[in-house]
Specification:
By secondary structure, this protein is α/β, with parallel strands linked by helices. Helices cover 45% and strands 13% of the residues. Strands 1, 2, 3, 4, 5, 6, 7, 8 and 9 form a 9-stranded mixed beta sheet that branches. Strand 5, helix 6 and strand 6 form a beta-alpha-beta unit. Helix 11 crosses helix 12 and helix 11 crosses helix 13. The longest helix is centred in the middle third of the chain and has 20 residues. It is globular, with a radius of gyration of 20 Å. It starts with 12 loop residues before the first strand and ends with a helix. It is found in: Cytoplasm.
Length: 324
Amino acid sequence: AQERYASIRDRKTVTLDGKELSLVMNAGLMADLPSLDSSGAEGVGLFRTELQFLVRNQMPKRSELVSLYGRVLDAAHGKRVVFRTLDIGSDKVLPYMKPTDEPNPALGWRAIRVGLDKPGVMRMQLQALIRAANGRPLTIMFPFVAQAEEYHMARAEVDKTIERERKLGHVLPETLEVGAMLETPSLAFAPQKFFDDVGFLSVGGNDLKQFFFAADRENERVRRRYDTLNVSFLSLIERIVERCAISGTPLSFCGEDAGRPIEALCLAAMGIRTLSMRPASIGPVKSLLLRSNLDELRKIISDARHRGEQSVRPAVMAWLKQQS
Ligand code: PEP
Ligand code: MG
């Protein structure tokens, strides 16, 4: 399938009305990295570091992480890699961590909540990332930030670790970007100051949608019940885009919907300019974006919203059909 899109692989993603997008990929294992070149992704928009922790039966050593992250950066040949710190806890229990018994794991002690309460592992991971960068640019993203303070506390850990590494004589990253995932609705309503302070934001659409509609992303009976193109969800996305624009905060979207061509197209029409997806989705998403006029689509979406429709999908599908 990749071959079908080979002719557009090295093309910039510019829509018919001249909007430029950046298509990047999600990864988590070393084996994913060759896809950077084959897919034409401009970088890794989400590197899920927990996968490396989940495939082992004991806590990896810091030295192992340094070598692993170093190899990831080598394989990226200077393309940006967004390392997301451990997103574990609750259902994603590490075999070597004491399980906690929680009635609602998805709403439980997970991701950055674990990282802040028990900072040992997070510190080790931050050290490993800094050492692996070894003077190269470094981008770190914290998962599941629900309120500004969590980001600020995590950011303070990064600064402390940088200081410690400097004192130990390690080379510091050439540049350091620190950002957060926006995957709980609360963060979209954080004070504007948060948007000024955060280095960048990436919408984790899988979790954001699950919490917005109160529909378990793992539960087959409900997970497809609410459309991503539901006008309420698009309003939330619109709000996030506007708030980031006010602060000049770089924004991306890295949930599965970024890799679904019609959803990706609508996210682009709502103003998202960086989409991170499975490598195999880059070709199909790019192909549709190259053939589309986002201003025109935005108007189709607005009209459907004004008519009071529940989802803009029928209007978008009709518009697409009329184009082909
Ligand atoms: C998300 O929630 O959309 C996301 C990208 O993170 P994960 O799927 O790993 O929870
Ligand atoms: Mg998530």
